[in-house]
Amino acid sequence: MEGSEAFLRKATIARREFLRIGAGAGAGAVATGGALASSQASAQTSAKTSAQTSDQPWNAPPRGSIRPVSIDVHTHWAPEPYVKALAELGRPQGGDPLNFDLDRRRKWMDAHGVEMLVLTLNGGMPWQWVSPEVGAHVAQVVNDAGIEAHTAFPDRFIAAVELPWHDRPRALKELNRVAGKPGVHGVHAPNSIQGRDYLFEPAYAPLLARIEELGYPIVFHPLDGDINYYGGPETRVGDPLSVSSAMNNWVGFTCETATTAAKFIVSGTLDKYPKLEVVLPHSGGSFPYLAGRLEHGLERSKFKVQRPFKEYVRRFHYDSITFYPETLGFLISLVGADRVVIGTDNAFGANQAIEYPNSLVEQLNLPAADRDLILRGNAARLFRL
Questions:
Q1: Bridge partners of residue 159, in order along the sequence
Q2: What is the DSSP letter of 63?
Q3: How far apart are CA 120 and CA 79, in angstroms?
Q4: Which of 42, 87, 250, 285 is deepest in the core (most CB within 10 A)?
Q5: Does the pLDDT at position 19 exceed 50?
């Protein structure tokens, strides 16, 4: 079996070579699913209203009474068996008890308008440093905990299963082990591992085919750690003279996700797996704002895609973590209300990203049908609830 060192050594398409596609292309804009000007106007009005009750729009409390209604597809947890396993491996993980205390977490959900969480690990997924054997064990521990959480509270928790992605046979074996079990409704995956966009390699085709066959959406999230940061630790994004190394998270993650989305298109992966569903974190990163530039660049380079480019942009689902209502309004106008889902990136404790996840959507004054799709309808369809 291949270890993580072999994984790092293997060659793949260099990101610099890939990013040459479209070099020098002009910026463009794609609009599907709504009137941008209208969304921006309502967002600006709503933002002024929210400013009266909150310092920032992403912290504004919901309008009226709070009731648990939304499905949060981008949230993190660290179940106790997983924390114990990492501690035994010499990688203790701290954090707030809300990471694993489901009773406390349900109380938080009730008080903040969230009905259900899709449970996933955070960017500290261990696949780049554990051995294949240990990785398979850790994945099994997390997935069993997710199934137990759903069994205890079937209306509040479902799981996107974790796989030891650095070992293809074991990843497929673990996927088949948990497939169809209660509470298993998706797959969680790192965008890349140690700078390698592994999913686009031919060897991973059977795994993607099996995920598509099962009807599980892939929920992506970039990995933490210098070796995983976009462009590597030596880039200006991670410059120690900048605000902090957190710039790799704030800026680098968005570039990471844009590259993932673009490669799904230009590699033909979306064409090869027409029923595969993909959820992009952090509102798609920078991809929605580069889509026009990418399309323009592909046309100039005579690179042919099989379908109209805007159809590929709508093949993805995007979480709502834009922080600004104006930005969320743009995203909705670009991809349509039927492609946006609620996300918080919440790991609780000190890493609480979004306090009231429904509020940002409410600030846009969307039609009721569109609002309901974003809050829960799209996620219910996507995860087959």
A1: 119, 184
A2: S
A3: 10
A4: 285
A5: no
| Beta-strand relationship, 157-162 and 184-190 | parallel
Half-sphere exposure of 304 (CA within 13 A, CB side): 1
- Mean pLDDT (whole number) for 355-367: 91
Instruction: Tell me how far apart the alpha carbons of residues 316 and 238 are, in angstroms, rounded to a whole number.
Output: 28
What average pLDDT score do residues 287-301 get?
95
Distance CA 137, CA 323 (A): 37
Q: How many domains does the chain have?
A: 1
Rounded CA separation 159/138 (Å): 15
The CATH number that applies at residue 82 is 3.20.20.140
Q: Residue 76 domain-assigned?
A: yes
Is the pLDDT score of 36 beyond 70?
A: no
| Residue (of 175, 187, 183, 126) closest to 150 by Cα position | 183
Q: Residue 175: inside a domain, yes or no?
A: no
- Given this model, what pLDDT does residue 56 score? 81
C-alpha distances out from residue 297 to 256, 292, 376, 382, Å? 19, 8, 35, 31
Name the more confident of 140 and 36.
Answer: 140
By the 8 A CB rule, do 161 and 146 touch? yes
| Residue 339, in any domain of the structure | no
Find the domain containing 41 and state its range: 4-168+184-284+293-332+344-382
Confidence of residue 302 (pLDDT cuts 50, 70, 90): confident
State the Cα angle at 160 between 71 and 95, rounded to 5°: 80
Q: Which helix (H) or strand (E) holds 316?
A: strand 316-319
Q: How confident is the model at residue 57 (pLDDT cuts 50, 70, 90)?
A: confident
Whole-structure pTM value: 0.84
* Residue 338 maps to a domain: no
246 has a pLDDT exceeding 50: yes
